[in-house]
Amino acid sequence: MMPRSLSSIVKICVLVLFVTSVCLVVSCKKSPPEGQPSDQRPQPSVTPAQAPEPPKVDTSKAPKPPAETPTAKAPEAPKAPKEVKTPAGSDTGSSALAAVDIKLPKPMFVGTPQDTRVPNLEKPSGKPRPSFLAPPGTKNLALGKPVSSSDEEPIIGEIEMITDGDKEAADGSYVELGPFLQHVTIDLGAKQEIYAILVWHYHKQPCVYFDVVAQVADDADFITNVKTVFNNDVDNSAGLGVGKNMHYTETAEGKLIDCMPGVRGRYVRLYSNGNTSNDLNHYIEVDVYGKPVE
Predict the structure, then answer these.
(1) How far apart are CA 104 and CA 284, in angstroms?
(2) pTM to 2 decimals?
(3) For residue range 129-169, what is the model confidence (pLDDT) as tens digits?
(4) Ramachandran bin of 237, using left for φ above 0, alpha for ψ from -120 to 50, beta for the remaining angles
(5) Nearest to 270 by CA among 192, 179, 209, 224
(6) For 209, what's the count of Cα atoms within 13 Å in the CB-facing half-sphere?
(7) Local structure of 7: helix, strand or coil
(8) If pLDDT is split at 50, 70 and 90, which confidence band does 69 have?
(9) Between the CA atoms of 268, 228, 238 and 232, what dihedral angle is there, to the nearest 10 degrees?
(10) Model pLDDT for residues 14-29, shown as the tens digit of each residue
(11) Among 203, 209, 205, residue whose Cα is nearest residue 169
(12) Mind listing the domains of the chain with CATH numbers?
């Protein structure tokens, strides 16, 4: 009887131990960690590498902003015409310029002049000279005015012929002065506003005169208010300084010395120092275009 009862007791004890261990395990699983409410589950920790990437936006499908409508430019205001300033001392005012009536002699030779081998020589244009423009009322102030010369006894002609209005190159129409540097001086009678000087040395055949210098002054001795308006002396052989103007070939058009916008003076003097044919100096006519000083 004893062995059977012991076996029953052992089974009961094992069963009790098993039930007790099961209860302990269940109670451990249901108890929350310390400091955490029982109704919340612990959240898994997330490392930066495991963080979900933000959703990518497809920019190609995004609506483009509307293009800017070009603004129409306001029309520019018309530019004011440039003002033509009149130099101090000139009486041209605001008058428009007009073509000066210049009477030319008939040509004595036709065609292009031959190369005379002169340094700093102006090439012939091969066409008529453009009209010279000056203030209205401009006229030849030298016509009939008294003339003096460094050569008081010309070889041919009379000094007064230089302002007599005869511009032809025929015999008896020109004055021949002695060799080397000579000059002629025209007295305009009063101070004038001079716009141009036109000189004919000798145009019966093409030639070039040397050391051509034109000056304007207030006195006959050329001391007061002297202005040089032309100088083609390349080596200062005339003693008036080296000029910047070019040599030129004589033609029936004469040499027009532009003095615009005007120089003031009473006396006009012209120098020359021989030519490509000989050492003599010649003058057919000299015009001085301008207006009286008001």
Answers:
(1) 12
(2) 0.68
(3) 999 999 999 999 999 999 999 999 999 999 999 999 999 99
(4) alpha
(5) 209
(6) 30
(7) helix
(8) very low
(9) -110
(10) 666 766 665 554 454 4
(11) 203
(12) 140-292 (2.60.120.260)
